[in-house]
Amino acid sequence: MEKELKHIAFIMDGNGRWAKKRGLPRHLGHKRGCEVCTDIYEGCLENHIQVMSLYAFSTENWNRPKDEIDHLFNYLEIFFKKEIKRFMRDGSRVMVSGDLSRIPEKTRNVIYDSMERTKDNKNFAFNICLNYGGKSEIVRATKLIAEDIKNGVISIDDVNEKSFENYLYTKDLPPVDLLIRTSGEMRTSNFLLWQLAYAEFIFTKTCWPDFNKKELNECINEFKTRDRRYGGIEDGNK
To answer: Would you state the pLDDT for residue 235?
Structure first.
């Protein structure tokens, strides 16, 4: 099968452990993690990737200490204010998957501003997943479909896999081809459950603050060796 790589999703794990190992407060791991996003973004552009999705804050992350959460949102504000010129220069569009209603207003406004200013850019999609959960996204899509059926916008016979995707946060994006999770954990953690249906998974022991373009390139090269069958048989068995 064609090994074209359009969409890479990242579970940016290990920020807290990276900081703890260095005797630093956990929030400084998140600060470094935000800085790494720029390097990996550039790496994706260099490899002609079309979309990167970043698991920045899950629906379960609200259980973390408030001080850590506050620092994380502050670092996100700094990131978008700093990088907006780069996004505009590169023709990159900022997108968000997740429910921003619970995000602090100041952070929300910074993100909305980045989305508005880049909405017409076509070269690349920078999809940040905030207050996101894969299960909640599917439930949300189901409710939206039910509402459209109730209001006569569509009929129940119109519902299929393709039309269902139109109700997801990622409706304008291609499916995920490659999921990279850092820090050695090997699970999806409720991330892009629908979109990962036929993705290849790579789990690296490197914590996100130490992840770099060199390791990204290694992951991309590993992806190119995979045999993506989509339920079919191996090429040699045709």
So the answer is: 58
For residue 11, the SS3 value is: strand
Tokens matching residue 48: 């002609």
Strands (E), 141-209: 178-181, 200-203
Predicted pLDDT of residue 10: 98
Going by C-alpha positions, the residue among 13, 32, 50, 25 that lies closest to residue 178 is 50
* Cβ atoms within 10 Å of 121's Cβ, excluding its own: 17
Q: What domains lie within the chain, and their CATH numbers? A: 7-134+174-237 (3.40.1180.10)
User: Which residues are the active-site residues?
Assistant: 13, 61
pLDDT in tens, 67-96: 999 999 999 999 999 999 999 999 999 999
Hey, CA dihedral for 54, 60, 65, 67, is it positive or negative?
positive
